[in-house]
Design a protein that fits this description.
Strand order of the largest sheet: 1-2-3-5-7-9-11-13-15-16-17-18-19-20-21
Number of helices: 15
Helix content: 25-40%
Radius of gyration: 29 Å
Shape: globular
Distance between the termini: 54 Å
Length: 473
């Protein structure tokens, strides 16, 4: 089936639904004007029930239920849809939400398949939690060949929803997303089909639970783990997998060990000097690394140690905080070299742009460079005087490798912008494209564009794409 076909039919269902909701008087007027043959023409209703069920599968449950008003044939079709996608806040009372879920899960044939279960609870009262057995709901669907499971627990709960142990041996599960729940002791985990696992703000029974959950997924490709300090979690997080392609870990674990030779993208934060250990990482992996907001206690030597471990990566996304520490470290020691780096995405504040020549000089094989100018909200830098970068040197990458540069200015008022653009155009010998996203008033915009046209270009094939966002005076 074509990928877009179900969505085209969804639009048709919506149109039919709107037509059924017109007043009786208008319906009679329409019938008088349309031939009888066209009146009875209903292509969607002529489809097999199995195909209609597949169409409704892609709709939220509340929208699928609404189709029961279309005709007598559609009245009960939604009940055969193998998905339940509901939010607690869509119901006037929690009791109504609970009753609907129970009726859906146990009114159908217990042998039938439920492919997707998605429940979002949000905020609640204690009474709701005490009288709601969500665990039995999850236990019911894990025995019915579920493929997609997503549970958002109670945000202000005095306890987390406990996940039953039957989840750990769900043979058909492909996508698992758990938010603010409690994962029980896992003596044995076997999830042979699981490819995507997202765990956020959950409680874990002990250190081995999370470890076994990861190791029990032999074809896992996408892993996200987000934790907060007030929750119980392992002291050591070991991520060892020969199938993982994407990892996102935002954490305050004392130690995280990464061993993923096929990894394509690693996104993580660093909260202490030695809490990240990369045992095995593909040289083609994309690394997106950052510090938590409070960065005052981190030393430049610690930053240098972390980046030395990943200096062989080819793509790097990094904040101005880390580059600032590297710059400070380089004043008294050797500059860290990223000899294999070909793609770099970095954020700078105006006060830290003096690091730019050092940054480019540390990446001799850089081909794609995205530079974003952002507001620096750190207290220690609020009153720092801006220092303009020194453009007297020409790094090796500008001469031999740099092909694409994107300059993003998310804040107005950078006086050195013209000189920066002039420097890049004048010294980049093989540059193919320079993309600019800038802010200007209408008058300043015209002056900037005129000057841009007159700037000398070292590369004969360079194209300049400029997006000017107007601002008021």
């Amino acid at each position: 089936m074509d990928f877009f076909f179900p969505y085209i039919l969804m639009v048709q269902i919506t149109c039919v639904k709107k037509e059924k909701m017109v007043s009786r008087k208008k319906e009679e007027e329409i019938c008088d004007q349309v031939p009888h043959e066209e009146e009875e023409e209903d292509l969607i209703s002529k489809l097999p029930e199995s195909l209609i069920s597949e169409i409704l599968y892609h709709l939220p449950t509340r929208d699928a239920v609404r189709t029961s008003a279309l005709s007598t044939r559609w009245r009960n079709l939604w009940q055969s849809v193998p998905t339940l996608d509901l939010s607690y806040y869509r119901f006037a009372q929690f009791h109504a939400f609970e009753s609907f879920v129970k009726r859906f899960l146990w009114s159908n044939d217990t042998e039938s398949q439920i492919r997707k279960l998605r429940l979002r609870f949000g905020y609640h009262q204690r009474y709701d939690m005490c009288h709601c057995d969500v665990t039995s709901w999850i236990d019911a669907v894990t025995t019915r060949r579920i493929q997609h499971l997503e549970v958002h627990g109670f945000r202000d709960s005095w306890m987390h929803i406990p996940i039953p142990q039957s989840l750990y041996t769900c043979e058909k599960l492909v996508h698992l997303r758990l938010y603010e729940v409690a994962l029980r002791y896992a003596e044995f985990v076997s999830l042979p089909c699981l490819k995507v696992m997202h765990l956020q703000n959950n409680k874990y029974y002990d250190e081995t639970t999370l470890q076994r959950l990861i190791s029990g997924c032999p074809i896992l490709e996408d892993l996200t783990i987000i934790t907060y300090s007030e929750l119980k979690k392992p002291d050591v997080l070991q991520v060892r997998s020969h199938t993982l392609k994407r990892i996102h870990i935002y954490h305050d674990f004392p130690l995280v060990v990464i061993d993923a030779p096929l990894l394509q993208c690693l996104r993580t934060s660093v909260s202490s000097p030695k809490n990240l250990e990369i045992v095995n990482l593909s040289s083609s992996a994309r690394l997106d690394i950052d510090f938590p907001f409070d960065c005052a206690r981190y030393s430049s030597s610690m930053v240098h140690d972390i980046l030395t471990d990943v200096s062989s990566v080819r793509e790097l996304v990094i904040s101005n905080v880390i580059w600032k520490e590297i710059f400070e470290y380089s004043k008294s020691g050797p500059v860290l070299q990223f000899c294999h780096l070909s793609r770099l995405n970095v954020k700078f504040s105006k006060s830290d742009l003096e690091m730019l020549p050092t940054l480019l000089g540390s990446c001799p094989k850089l081909e794609f460079f995205v530079l974003e100018l952002v507001t620096d909200n750190r207290f220690m830098c609020r009153n720092k005087k801006n220092v303009e970068p020194n453009f007297s040197t020409v790094p090796q990458c500008l001469v031999s490798s740099l092909k694409y540069v994107e300059w993003k200015r998310q804040i107005p008022g950078y006086e050195g912008e013209v000189e920066l653009v002039r420097y890049l155009l004048k010294n980049s010998k093989i540059l193919e494209k320079l993309k600019l996203d800038v802010y200007y008033t209408e008058m300043a915009k015209c002056a900037f564009l005129q000057e841009l046209l007159t700037m000398p270009r070292c590369s004969t094939v360079c194209e300049v794409h400029c997006s000017v966002i107007p601002i008021k005076k």
